[in-house]
Each structure stands twice: as structure tokens, then as C-alpha cells.
Amino acid sequence: MVSSSSHPSFSSAPLRSPTVQRDSRRAAEGRRRRTGREQTADWKLLRRMSMEGDAPHVVDMTTSEKVVELLNQAALLGTEEKLTMLKQVQELIINKDPSLLDNFLDEMIAFQTDKSMEVRKFVIGFIEEACKRDNELLLRLVANLNMLLRDESVNVVKKAILTLTQLYKVTLQWMVRSKAVTERQEACWDMLTQMKGDVLALLDSENDGVRTHAIKFTESLIISLSPRTSDSDVPKRQDADISLDKIPKDHAYIRYDVLCEEGKSALEQLLRFMVHPAISSINLTTALGSLATLARQRPMFMSQVVQAYETLHANLPPTLAKSQVSSVRKNLKIHLVAVLKHPCSLDFQAQIGTLLLDLGMAQSEITRATPVPREPRKRPRHEQYPEGKKIKMEPALMEDDEDKEEPAAASVSKPSPAPAAQSAIDLTAHFLHPLLNPENVANLVLISMVYLPDVMPASFQATYTPVESAGTDAQIKHLARLMATQMTAAGIGPGLEQSRAREGDSKEGLGEDELSQELLIKRKVPMVHGQAISVVGSYGEKQPAIEVPLVKKLPEPILPSTQTKLPGTTGRKKVFRLADVVQPLLESQIEKLTSTAVKRILNSEKTIAQSGMAHIRVRLLSRLVTQFEGTMKEDVLGFILQDIRGRSDLAFSLLYQEYNAYLSQLPEGLLDGYDHCLYTLLSGLQEKPEQRDGLFTKLVLEAPIITESALDVIRRYCEDESRVYLGMTTLKELIVKRPSRQFQYLHVLLDLSSHEKEKVRTTALAFIKRMYEKDQLRDYIEKFALNYMQLLVHPNPPSLLFGADKDTEVAAPWTEETVRQCLFLYLSLLPLNHRLVHELASVYTEAIADIKRSVLRVIEQPIRGMGMNSPDLLLLVETCPKGAETLVTRCLHILTDKVPPSPELVERVRDLYHKRVPDVRFLIPVINGLEKKEVILALPKLIKLNPIVVKEVFNRLLGTQHSEGSASMSPLTPGELLVSLHNIDSTKCDMKAIIKATNLCYGEKNVYTSEVLAVVMQQLMEQNPLPMLLMRTVIQSLSMYPRLGGFVMNILSRLIGKQVWKHPKVWEGFVKCCQRTKPQSFSVLLQLPATQLTSVFDRCPELRDPLLQHVLSFTPHQQAHIAPSVMNALEACDKPEVKPVETPVERRVEAAPTPAPPVVVETAVPPPAAVKAKTHIVQPMQQTQPDPGTDDPVEEAMDQGGEDMGVQGKPDPTMTQAEVPRPEEAATPPAETTEEEEEEEEEEEEPMETADPEPPEVNRPIGDGDGDGDGDGDGEVEAADGSGAEEAE
Amino acid sequence: MPSHPLRVAVVCSSNQNRSMEAHNILSKRGFDVRSFGTGSHVKLPGPAPDKPNVYDFKTSYEQMYNDLVRKDKELYTQNGILHMLDRNKRIKTRPERFQSCKDHFDLVITCEERVYDQVLEDLSSREQETLQSVHVINVDIQDNHEEATLGAFLICELCQCIQHTDDMENEIDELLQEFEDKSNRPFLHTVCFY
After folding, report:
1. Which residues are bridge partners to A1157 per DSSP?
2. How many Cβ atoms from other residues are within 10 Å of residue A695's Cβ?
3. What are the tens digits of pLDDT across the range A181-202?
4. Which chain B residue is nearest to residue A125, measuring alpha carbons?
5. CA separation for the pair A1178, A1168 (Å, rounded)
6. Res A573 pLDDT > 70
7. CB distance B127–A237 less than 8 Å?
8. Would an 8 Å CB–CB cutoff place A237 in contact with chain B?
């Protein structure tokens, strides 16, 4: 592109070449061109010609035309062709016709903003070539180069550095050549100096390639800014060579000493760069090469170079890979050989040789590479280049080798330089050498063993060569030197101290020679210590005055009008400097970063596991998380809980770490973190579905401390029915294995023993029972159990039982449930420790009735478990605290329920009964253990009890209680029992009860077989006086066993012999019996004396006719046997006169007992006792009628009997005495009763509410269940019924 | 990615087998490639290990081919030498010696360490002028046909990767590390300057 304005025309029709354009172009060119006028004319002409003809115009064009053509084309083409065009242009205007250079400079430079970096690179190359061709162009182009040095493309920057490397030298030469320096030249130089500083700074670039180029630039700079000496290797091409020695010390603008310092500072930078621990392998290689070049071209630096090599060799950067180490070592070797070959290496041959040996080079090769000393020269290997003041006039163009001798001679007197660092190493090495005896070395080896890394570093592996000459002096020296190098690098060692000390000494005491040396040392020391002399600062300080104008004067880049780029946007990049980049993060950012970092570690689980470093990850995570606050703890915990089985190691690690954190700040440390961690883990496990791996247990048992909240979780775990066993096992382990807090854990377990869930409760109880065997826990458990039981004395259940923790009472009444809750633990302990039973007794006495009932219900199992031989139980029976009678009774019942009572028990009960509490009910359970006499004695009382109790008594006595019954144990046979019942004194016990009791006997048909009854009747009949109930029994037996009829007839006859009529009651029965057994009984009746027979007929008139008929049916002979009086009696109905005869008999009969007539009289005002005494003979039989609730077979049988017997009485109730009280009785019981009746009633129905001194409640459990309750059908009754049924069983 | 194709030199000892194999493949893949030997002579296997056929670098592949055909066509057909020479002559006329070439490259790949050393020695002995960098990489390849083929593909892949880097000098270190891991052989690598 020629210019921006012309561009459109060219693009549309490049070949038309309008005149306007050409004119404007010419005008522009005319300003600059020196010799272009004719050419322009020619061009114009040719142009026109070419337009007219078809001939290929390019061929015939002038150079200038060609350039224009090419430039125009280049502007339109793609990168490739553009470059081709531009290269042609460059060739044309630089080499073919340099006169055109100035003309087309702007056009060429305009391409520096091209999009393609290749084009930009080309422009840089063009600048270089142009400036080399015409140094004056530097004035204009250096600024453009400066711009390109900041290009965004690293390739452009690199190219710019390369060009700068060249142009710096070119400019320096040009400056030196120019005798009169113009202001623009000065500005140009200043800019170049500034660019030089920029490039040196690029040593810190973040781009490897840029750094590499910066190194090469530095190398070139150092060489330029240091004097060439006689023994310098000299590049063969001399054209661009410039060195410090060619710079006149009186130059108008350039300061020799400044440049000298700049050169040294650049070397320093390079050396410092090289020891950077993270240097890349390419940079290192480059730097090694640069040092070799330096050493060869500037032998004065050789000692520093060799020392740098030594240091590097001993400290290869750890960042290098194995193959890189090999590469670097190979380079090192090559460069060392190159240095060694230099004649000035003489002083360093030993060191270089050692290094090369270490690098694996054969001694022979080393020797071959070692130059033969050029002897005759006595002077030092290289000259000390002079300090600023020395003026050396040297023509700029005198560059012959021969000339070099002269400047060298000028500094002949300088002593051989032993730079401070070098000597420091030497000194230290000397110091070390004698110390390296076998013992010390062995110790050193042993000590350093500790610090050896786990894995052999790549650099070591590569550098290791077996020590061939171990122990020789040479090897020891080498070792000493190696160590000295390291020590000096680390800033320690006597050598360094000495040189420092020397430095610190006042210089007055030194000789002049020494002083000069001292100056030298002083100057170099900073290099060793890394105290940089700022490149910029070094001249900035010295030229403060011109700095301001300098700004103005700085060359401005040629900026094409199309240029849009700003220098500021160029891609100059700096190496990472922490301070520049870092700014404090926001709190939230920090949090986010840390948590994401932790998450990454978390999520790398698998990868790390594969690498086998999982344990390190776990440790790392747990440490991290415990150290910092924030959400990551939650993250980690959540992560663990996702797969707690797989991540248990992390869980444990975290837990321990938390505990550790707590311990480390102990006095005021808080357990919060630990607690939270443990709690979360345990809850997580607890909430997870069933696991069988025991991780929960493991976690609990391995946790250093169980906190309160953790204990809560354990408790919850135990409450889970599916895991209760596991949970309690854990708890048990805790109790056993953590004695210091075992009661705390035990308490939880104890608490659970009254849990509402049965499974939890029973498991807890089972565990507690086991614990109870341990002495140290026993007291606590016992106390707990008793305390709990003690709650029963409260009138209302404490809220404790409802889960509240305050010991307050709530209004709710005691229920079966709550009562049980208080007793579970106690009851399960009871069989283990019988002594506890006394506590129960004392609580029992204080408790309210409801509780007592519940207690009685629940104690069965444990009491049975204790057994009747338990001394404590016996003691309880013996002592039987006041109020605990029912309890004791209940115990007795439980004990004897299935097994016969032991003699001891019987003994205690008997004692109790006789001496303390004469309640016959005590005897019932042990009744079979009593003696016959005792039983008989107790019978009257027993049968007065509630019918069901009586039934139970009889069951026991008759052995009908259970299948495995203890009938044989019974002190009474069934017959004896029945007989005894008959013999009960009716003054001690009312007939009604006795009849009921006998009825019970009859109910047991299995026991009371006809034989038994026959025997009983036999016995009774033989007694004197006859038992009152004899005939009732006979009738009963007969109705049960009709085949006993013959036997009964026999009995009846014998009764006649015993004058049965003298016993009114029996007589009455006798008559009834006869009546029921007619006609069988006719023969018996006929045996009666006539009087009595009449009496019979009086009582039972309907007998007379059948009997008469019977007699009449007799044969006359038989009739003859019948006494006439009898016959009279038989016919008495026809003979009224018989009656008077009978009356006295009747009177006599009735007089004896005397009850009957008064009964009739007294019906209006019935004295209860009399009613009892007289009416009950019949009454019981009829009593069954108003009691429809009973459907007992026994009762049925009685019903029948009663009906039979009452057939006659019913239709005419006034007929018999017995029936007289009946209406009264039938009417009274429900409504108005006499006192006694009431008492009776009460005893039957609700005995315990009375003021009965005897155990009030006992009737409940024992004898309750008379379903005719008066309507208090609440829960208690029902429950009581239930338990009553149980007992009946 | 550098817009200009990499200028690659592949160097082995005699510029016959390994460098030519790589030369062949690389040029097919469009690289600006040249091949060289570093030995003082071109040596080809002879009838016995101690009797190699020795030529100087001026001898063309064609001439060598004819020479060997004349000497023992059977043997040199069987051991593949003739085939190799036939291929070589279709790539270029004659072997070239690296030390004699003054052209500049971006990348020099050597096929064995000895060659690498020689290349380095040569490059560092040259006078530095432009300070343009050249990366020298050694890929050890045994001198037989199979290894040469395998090695050529490795070199080709390496070159392609380097060609595709945005900034070769900045990325080559890492790239080589990856390649080392991948190919399981160490590479020597250095940079020299023209």
C-alpha cells in the first residue's frame, strides 16, 4: 500500500494508474527523493507505454516502478504472496538500489501494523537491513523497533530482540564513528539504551522463547560492553563487531565507564538468572552456551563462568526431567570442553577437569582438550580492564589483532584477579580439606542420610558417577571444593566470612596494591550476594539533568495514518511477580476457593486411591478441615456420609484430628468441633438404613470422648427396634470399657429399661441383668431401680414417666402402663437379688389401691422366678408388713400355683396366720401343706369366703386344680372333706355357706363318684347326732346317681332304726327323700312306726293313697306283717280320730328343735339370726332361682333338685315353714337389706372397700369375678375379671 | 502456530536409512525437510561386518546403487540396501553432510546420540551471527529398516505436534516431556544459535 488515500484507486484498477494519483505520489516522493526526478519522468513514461502496449511491463519497469507495483500488489494479497512481494521490494531498495530506500521507507514500515505476524517480522528484518545499510535510518526506525518490541505476538518480539541485538552493536559503532553527535543521535541512543533495559527485563518474561532470546541479547551485550583482550576469541566476521575497548573514553555522548558498568551488571543478571531454581532446560542450555561464549571471547570472566558451571553442576534445578538433565549435562560438557580449549583456562584446568570427569568424560579426552600452556607470557591471562578514569585513546577502526597487545599492556600491572567469591570458595575449600578425615566424612554421610528424599531425583541419577579415587588427596580436595561451592552459595563458610570481614575492614591499613585489589573485590562481592545494581538506575543517576529533555527528544516511530495500534496494547509480558499480581481476596472469594479446593481433594478420591496415596489424602483433608472454619467441614462430613463404609478412614481421621485440636488448646479449648463431628457422623449412621458392619459401634468405641449429644444419638440408635441389640451392645461396651463415665452410659441403658417399646425394654433389661452381675455397677442399678419404683408412692405419676425430665407430677392418674413402667427394671432384678422384695413390700403398703392392683398383676413372673425357697420371700411372708398382706397372699398364690407348697413356706404361713394376721385366706395357697386337723379347723372360715375363692380352695383340696394335681398331697380325701363339711358347727358358719360348699363337691363328679358318696353317707349316718345336712346329701347323691337307690333305701331303713324322726331337720329330709323315691321308698315307709307314718302323711298327704294302694296290693300274708297301727295310719284319712294321736307326736317332734313354729310367727319381724338359722335349710336350694347368672352344672343339678323338692312348695308357699321367709328374702336382697345381709352382700361383691381389717383387696384377685357385679363396670373391674380368670385357670 | 512451515533437518550418520526414511515421510506430509549425515563418509553394509562399502558424500545414490548391483546384486537385494538406495535416489540425488550445510533450520532431529553430539559440536563451533535459534532433538533409532520406519513415524508425529504449537519455543519442553512418556524413550534436546 502506497498511501492510505490512494489505496481505493489501486484496489479498484491498479493498472489504470491515474494521473492524479501519480501526481500526488510524485509530490510526496519529491519531498524526500534525492535523485528521483528523472526517474519519476521515466516511470511516468514507461507507465504510459505499458498501458498502450501489451508487453509485460514489469520487465521494462525501472526499479522504482517495480517497487511501487510490488507494494501495490502486496497490499492486496495474502500473507504468503505479500511476503514474497515485500522481500522483492526489500531486495530492490536495499541491495539493488539503496537510493530508493528512503523513498519507500514509510510504505514499508507501514506494514508493521499488518495483521500477519510474519509480515510484522519481515518489517523488523527490513528495519535491521535498512539500518545496517544506512545508519542514519536508525534515527527514524529505532522507535518503530521499540514498538515492535512490545508486539503482542511473541514471535515478533523475539524477532525484535534479535534485531535489537544487531542494531545495538550497529548503533554503538555508529555513535563511536560519529565525531559530532547530533541531538537526534543522542535521543536515538537513549532510546536504544532504554530498549536494552527492557530486553534485559525480559529475562523474567513468562515466555520461554522470549527469555531465550533475551539471554542471547544479554550475551551479545556483555561482549559488546566489555573490552576485547589479546587472548579473546575473536569472531571471524568483524563488520559488526564492537567492544568496549573501541569506545573512546572521551566520547561526546557515550560514557565509557557507564557502558562498562552496564556490561558488568548485565553479566550479573545473567548469572543470577542462571541460578534460578526453576529455570527451564532450554534457558539453562542457552545460558550455558552464552557463558561459554563469554568465557572464550572475554577470558576476564572465565573465573565467574567456571564458578557458575561448578555451582550449576552441583545444583541442577530440581524441576528438570531426567532426559533434560542428560541434555543439560551434555551441554555442560560441550561448553566446558570449549572453555577448556581456550588458552586462558589454565588457572581453571583442575576445576574444569574435575567437572568433566564428573560428567563422565574420560581423562584422556580431557587431556586432549587441554591446551598446552603458552609459556613465555608471564603476564596474567587476561587484562584487567581499566576503571573509568583511565583514558584509552584508540581509533575506532583499529581492530587488528596486533593492536590488542597494546591496550593489554596498559593494564599489565594488574594482579591476577581472584574474585571474591572465587577466593571465598577457595578459602572454604582449604578450610575444609584437613577436616575431611574418614570419621568426619562418615558422620556427614550418616547425618545426611536423614535428609535424603524418598525417590532418587532425576538429576542425581544422571549425575552420579562412581567415585573412583575415593580417599585420595585429589578426591578429598575435590570434595572439599564441592562442599565449599555449596557453602558459599548458601552464604556460609569461613571463606565468605573472611572476605566479608576484609571488606568491612578499613582500607587505610592496606597497601596500595591491596587497595586496588580491594576495590575490585568490593565491586564484585555484590554480584555474589545478589545485590543487583539496577541497570536503569546506574545511568539514570548519572544523567539526571538530561532526563527531562530526553523525553522530548526520544525518536518517534513512523506511524502510518492507518495505524490503529497503540504501543500500550502490545503484548509485552512480564514474568510472574507475586507482589504485582497479588491482591487480597475477598472473604467470600477465599471461602469459595478453599471450599472448592477441598472439594477437589474430596472428589479426587478414586484417582488418589489408585495412586496408593489415599492415606495422605485422608490426612490432608482432616488437617485442612479442622484448621479452618467454614462450610468445608460440612462438605467433608456430607461426603463421608455418602459412603460412610468406604470412607470410614476419613471419618476416623477427621474425628481424631478434631479431638487433637481440642487437646492442643486444652485449658480453654472447646469440644464443639469434635462434638459436632461425632454427632454428625453418628446421626448419619443412625439415620441410614440398616447396616451390619458395626461401624456405628466402632465409631462409638473408638471415639476418644462420647459427648452428651453423641450419647443422645446412641440412645436413639438403641430405641430403633431393628438395631436395638447392636445399639445396646455398643452401650454395654462403653459401660465396660470406659469406667470413668460408665454411670453416665449406664444411666442411658437404665432409662431404656422402661421404654415404651417392648423390644427395646426387654433388650435393655436383659443387658442390665448381665451388668447387674458386676459388683461396681450393682449398686447403681439397684438404686436406679428402687428410685424408679419409689415413684409409685406418688399419688400421680411423675412426668418423668412421660419423657419429661423434670420430676414433677402431672395430673393424669396412674395407669397400668405407667405403673409397669416403674417396675420393669425392678422386677427383672428381683429374681437376681431377692432382698429387693422387701422394698417392694414397703412401697406397696404406701401405694394407692390402683397401683396395688397393678403391682399384684405384674409380680407373678418374678416371684415365680424366685421360688418358694427364697429366704427373702419366706422372710417377707414371715414379717408381712402391715398393708402388704394382699401382696404376700398374692405371692403365696403365685408360688403354689403349680407346685405344692414347701414345708418351710407352710410353716411361715401358719405362723403368720396364727400369730399375726389371722386371715384364713393366707392359708389357701398352702392348704395342701397343712395338716388335716388344721384344714378342718379352717374350713368354716374358708367356705364363708367368696364362692370363687371357695371353689379354688376346693380345687386345691380335691386336686382338681391342675392335671398334675396334688390330690395325693391333699391332707383330706374327698370323702373326708365332705364329711368335714357336714360336721361344721352351724354356729360357726351358716348353713348357706356349708350347702354351697357341699354343692361344690357335688359339682366334681369325677371326684365324688357314687362310691365316695356312699362311703360318705355311710359315715354320716353312723354319726351321732346325725348331721343336719345328711338327708340333703342323700337326696343329692340319689339325684346324681339314681342307681344308688337301693343303697339309699338301706340308709333310710337304718335311719329309721336310729329314730330319725327325733332329728327334725333330718326327718324332714327323710320324708322328702321318701317322697322322691316312691314307690321304692314304700317299703321303708312301711317300716316306720305308725305315729311317724302319720307324721309323714301329715307332711306329705299325697303319699298316703299310693302307699295304701301298695299295701293293699300285698298278698294277705304280707299284709299280715303290717302293723295294724300302720294300717290305721294308712287309712287315717278316713278316721279323723287318728289325728289327735298324731298331734302329740308332732308336737314332740317339733319341740325338740323348736325352731319351726317361731318362724311362722316371726315372719313379720324377722330377726336375722333366726332367719339364718332356720330358713336356710331350704333357702339355698331356692336361692339359685333368683341368681340366673350361674349356669354351673352344679347349680343346674341343684336346680333340678330344688325344683323337685319345691314342686310341692311352690304352688302353695304358705304350706311349709321353709317357704315362709322366701318371699321376704326374694324381695329384699336388692332393695332393702338388713345389716347382716348387707355385710354379706358386700363381702361377696366389693369386699375390699369395707372396713374389713383383713386384706381388703385380696378378694379382688383371689375371689373376684362374680359376674353379678352391681354395675361398676369400669376398667378396673374388667381388668380384675381378667386376672381373676387367669387365676382360675 | 507459526505461519511458515518448520524448516526441519533430519540427521543420521550416513544419510541413508534413518534420516532418509524420515525425510521421505516428512516430505510427504508437507514439511520443509532436508536430511543429512554427520559421518565423515557414507558407509553401507558390505559382505561382512568389517567390510563396509564406503563412499564419500559426493557419490550419488544412483552411483552407489549401480556399484552395489555390480558387486553382489543378490546380497544387496536381499538385505534391502538396493531397495533403500532406490528410494533414496528418488528423493534426492546424493547424501549430504550436515557440517557442510550452511542453511538455517528451525529444528534438527538427530537419530542417535553420537550424531547429536556431532551436530552440537558443529553448531557451537560455528560463528554466531543472527542468533536465530535452532532446536536440536535426539531421537534414538536403531539402524535397521524396521526401526527406521517406526522412528520416522515418531519423528513425523513429533514434528506435526511442534508445527501445531502456537509458540514452539514456549511449549516444546512440555511437548517433549509428553512425548517421552508416550514413546517411552528419552529425548535429548538443546537449543543452538546461528
Report:
1. none
2. 16
3. 888 888 888 899 999 999 998 8
4. B130
5. 16
6. no
7. yes
8. yes
For residue A917, report the phi and psi dihedrals to the nearest 5 degrees: -120, 100
Distances from the Cα of A840 to the Cα of A297, A424, A889, A892, A1281, angstroms: 113, 98, 14, 15, 24
Phi-psi region of A904 (alpha: psi -120 to 50; beta: other; left: phi over 0): alpha
Query: In chain B, which residue's Cα lies nearest the Cα of A166?
Result: B130
Which of A60-74, A275-289, A864-878 is least confident?
A864-878
Long-range contact pairs involving B51-58 (C-beta distance under 8 Å, separation at least 24): B57/B15, B57/B94, B57/B95, B57/B96, B57/B97, B57/B100, B58/B94
Q: Do A330 and B190 touch (CB under 8 A)?
A: yes
Contact call for A116 and B3, based on CB within 8 A: yes
- pLDDT-derived band of residue A799, with 50, 70 and 90 as boundaries? low
Q: Select the highest-mean-pLDDT range: A220-224, A673-677, A825-829.
A: A220-224
CA–CA separation, B99 vs A305, rounded Å? Answer: 28
| Cβ atoms within 10 Å, residue A645 | 11
Burial classification of residue B113, based on how many CB atoms lie within 10 Å of its CB (0-12 exposed, 13-18 middle, 19 or more buried) = middle
Residue pair A920/A913 in contact (Cβ under 8 Å)? The answer is yes
Among chain B residues, CA nearest to A214: B131
Contacts of A207 in chain B (CB under 8 A): 167, 169-170
Instruction: Output A636 or A540, whichever has higher pLDDT.
Output: A636
Cell of A85: 512481494
Grid cell 447403681 — which residue?
A780
pLDDT over 70, % of chain B: 98
Residue B133 pLDDT greater than 80, yes or no: yes
Q: Which residues fall within 8 angstroms of residue A633, CB to CB, at 6 or more apart? A: A625, A626, A673, A676, A677
- Give residues 320 to 339 of A whose Cβ lies within 8 Å of B: 321-324, 326-327, 330-331, 334-335, 338
- Cα A753 from Cα A757, distance rounded (Å): 10
Q: Provide ipTM, 2 decimals.
A: 0.91
State whether A326 and B167 contact (CB < 8 Å). Answer: no
Edge-first strand order for the sheet with B7-12 is B32-37, B7-12, B107-110, B133-139, B187-193
Q: What is the 3-state secondary structure (H, E, C) of A21-60?
A: HHHHHHHHHHHHCCCHHHHHHHHHHHHHHHHHCCCCHHHH
Flag if B170 and A208 touch (Cβ within 8 Å): yes
For CA atoms B178, B184, B186, B189, give the dihedral sign. negative
∠ Cα A1000 A1005 A1007 (to 5°): 90
pLDDT over 70 at A566, yes or no: no
The answer to whether residue A220 neighbours chain B at the CB level (below 8 Å) is: yes
Per-residue pLDDT tens for A102-116?
Answer: 888 888 888 888 888
Q: What digits encode the pLDDT tens for the residues A1139-1180?
A: 444 444 444 444 344 333 333 333 344 444 444 444 344 343
- Provide residues of B within 8 Å CB-CB of chain A: 2-4, 116-117, 120-121, 124, 127-133, 135, 167-173, 176-177, 180, 186-193
In DSSP notation, A1206-1247 reads: HTTTTT-TTSSTTTTHHHHHHHTTTS---HHHHHHHHHHH-G
Which residue(s) pair with B9 in the sheet? B34, B108
Mean pLDDT value across residues B150-178: 87
Q: How far is CA A517 from the centre of its chain?
A: 73
How far CA A60 is from CA of A13, A38, A45, B101, in Å, comes to 20, 16, 11, 37
Mutation site, A79, A279, A282, interface B, largest B CB count within 10 A: A282
For chain A, the average pLDDT equals 69
| Grid-cell match 509485552, residue found | A572
